[in-house]
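Quick look at the format.
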Amino acid sequence: MMDVTTVAIGRPEGPDLLVGPGRPLLLIAGPCVLESPELARRVAGTMQEICGRLGLSYVFKASFDKANRTSLGSFRGPGLAEGLAVMAGIRDAMNVPVVSDVHESSQVPSAAAVLDVIQIPAFLCRQTDLLQAAATTGKPINLKKGQFLSPWDMAHAVDKIKSVNGSRVLLVERGSCFGYNNLVVDMRSFPVMRELGCPVIYDATHSVQLPGGAGGSSGGQREFIAPLARAAVAAGIDGLFMEVHPDPDRALCDGPNSIALDRVEAILQQIVRIRSCLE
């Protein structure tokens, strides 16, 4: 079994956040997509305060472009330049690390100039050129496991990244395809992927997504976010990923599987208590 490597995530000011064994639980959270600067700042500020109270490390997440939406007419976000400007504003004003996903190698240089962590979407986790372009930046990479892959198959994706310059990798479990329009979470995935030497993050909100389940968009079962997150923390993960929105029913993307901003702290309090039992 390979020892899990601690991953350092840079902050605009102050010490890096450290993710891995013996470190505070990491929370990556924010709205699915950048809807407005005001909404993004509200979520980031609230989540930063909550994580500070609970002793959690925090990274703000939002997408500047959702290139993998189900239908052509779905909202994708503000785009690369405008979206990165919003992310830079949050990063610098709040002293909080930020992460967003890239879909093409051409986006990587601009994204790396702003982001503290580069995310690779699950559908693109085998795209060699994209993985290696992200690795050349030297930034930590939040690599989502494809819904179509076994946890042990992620070894090949990790090798593609680390062959460039040994970049720091976080592996994200977000559920596996289970028939049509459904996902399941195999809790065995967490220790299996940790054996690859990478900290493992559980995506508690995309895992309850029903892909394409709402016709022209994905549905979701947010009532299962809390129990699955509790189980994942008990299984020994290093961090959680959550999509959070002030009003999920009106969110422009992934509302059915997002958590309401005013309900997050109660869930995280449970998470903290469970993790304390493992220390």
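Next, a different chain entirely:
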Amino acid sequence: MNIKAIYPGTFDPLTNGHADIVQRASRMFDQVIVGVASNPSKQPLFSLEERVALARQEFAGIKNVSVIGFSGLLAQFAHEQHAQVLLRGVRAVADFEYEFQLASMNRQLNPTLDSLFMTPSEKNTFISSTLVKEVCRHNGDVSSFVPAHVEIALKTRFQQLQDQG
């Protein structure tokens, strides 16, 4: 049976926690799609195209992982991709409550889609894209929280913003 999983998120930026979940999922499923959500309501630091490119660079060496940008409803995107499993990372109880609501809604919208919650490895449990951006914005060291190419992209973007303002 060919089981296809989608790991959706804004990935603004992609963190080591995200990468850890994708790498582990790639050993559990025949195909893993990293679904990079447009999500303009979050006012992302990077454009959708930039976030897709950063994720593709990270996962280029994993044969059964692909990266696709999308907008609109996740349940519809999963249907279009013929995915059976929706992967979600859960760091804490607060994450679980929110993710449980999303899983229930997605099941109503796409009854063939099952949600699977994964916890990041212990060294990544506290990392969030929001915290990484805040640390980098104030010239802190984010090298242990994100892949090297993402760190470069973050520093470059914050320097561009500083030069503009």
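Residues 58 and 147 are 8 Å apart (CA to CA).

See the schema section for token definitions.
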